[in-house]
Amino acid sequence: MKFSMNLLLWGTQVDESLFPVLDLIQEIGFEGVEVPVFNPDPNAWHGWRKKLDELGLHREADTFCGVDTNLISPDKAVRALALENLKRSVDCAVVLGATQLMGPFNAALGVFTGKAATREEWKWGVDGIYQLAEYAEDQGIGLGLEYLNRFETYLTSCGDDLTQFVDEVNHPACRIMFDTFHANIEEKNTGDCIRNMGDRISFIQLSENDRSTPGKGNVDWPGVFQAINDIKYDGWLSIEAFSPKLPAANIWRQMFDSEEQLMRDGLAFIKQNVHQVVSN
Q1: What is the pLDDT of residues 106-124, one digit of tens each?
Q2: Which of 77, 87, 92, 212 is deepest in the core (most CB within 10 A)?
Q3: How would you label 84-110 residue by residue, b for 16+ Cβ within 10 Å and e otherwise?
Q4: How many Cβ atoms sit within 10 Å of the Cβ of residue 269?
Q5: Cα(103)–Cα(179) distance, rounded to whole angstroms?
Q6: Three-point CA angle 224, 230, 236, nearest 5°
């Protein structure tokens, strides 16, 4: 397995001012980064490609959709705009040199109707992601769909939902990006959720229940690492942690000494657990 760091820890301003952070990430011992793609202009990412290549850091791209780019909007024009915007995000992933575009983009973040998803909304989502997967596959990019908890989305808000959704998309370029934070809220047993998803999982984010340093909260880490071993997953493990720099996540307090401390302690914790499970 290899280890990655999500850049959302430093907020939503994703530009070349973060390049010194990339140096630190590489120095600490991470082998890759997750790059949030909020600017869907491919020309904005050439400098990132060069910097990441210089550091030898693997990279994956993350994105999400909002109310104006919602794949399950009742407005056909909004759905069309959402698909085009996501295709441009795929183009950005290509420029970055990523292999995946990941995130909860089968529906808009933070948009609710006050009801459960309808059959029509489900179909719009499945159809839109299938079309995106077709485009992404042609560009050499895979999709890693993520489910969020019930407070952030309503189309797919647990492992069973997303597993069914991906199975209905039924496209080789569409898989699952799994996040322990949301599973800690929504699942009866996080390990069982991972085992049920099995080889559909293409990427794993390790996030504490309070989005702070992995290992400092109440996530069932022994169960998580055992399940990862059980499904013989040997892909990327990425730390996703937030701070007051990401106000959209409603994190208003500082839960760690520094970003460097979080990364060093989190990476050490993950490596120790991976080694322990494999040794047993």
Answers
A1: 999 999 999 999 999 999 9
A2: 92
A3: ebbbbbbbbbbbbbbbbbbbbbbbbbe
A4: 18
A5: 10
A6: 65
With H, G, I as helix, E, B as strand and everything else as coil, classify residue 142.
strand
Residue in the structure block whose two tokens are 């992404």: 136
Stated pTM of the model: 0.96
Average pLDDT over residues 111-140: 97
CATH number of the CATH domain containing 253: 3.20.20.150
Catalytic residue among 60, 121, 152, 240: 240
Contacts 24+ apart (CB under 8 A), 19-27: 19/51, 21/259, 22/51, 22/52, 22/55, 22/57, 23/55, 24/260, 24/263, 25/57, 25/263, 26/55, 26/56, 26/57
Strand-pairing partners, residue 82, are none
User: Tokens for 244?
Assistant: 């007051």
Segment 43-97, tens digit of pLDDT? 999 999 999 999 999 999 999 999 999 999 999 999 999 999 999 999 999 999 9
Does 16 participate in catalysis according to the annotation?
A: no
CA 66 to CA 178: how far, in whole Å?
Answer: 21
Task: Tell me the pLDDT tens digit for each residue of 221-275.
Answer: 999 999 999 999 999 999 999 999 987 777 778 899 999 999 999 999 999 999 8
59 φ, ψ (degrees, to nearest 5):
-145, 145
From the list 94, 8, 100, 101, the residue with the least C-alpha distance to 45 is 94
Residue of 146, 152, 187, 208 with catalytic role? 146
List beta partners, residue 216. Answer: none
Asked if 146 is an active-site residue, the reply is yes
- Gap between the Cα atoms of 232 and 190, Å rounded: 16
Residues 6+ apart with CB under 8 A from 31: 2, 3, 4, 57, 58
What was the pLDDT predicted at 280? 74
Residue 251 is part of which domain span? 2-279
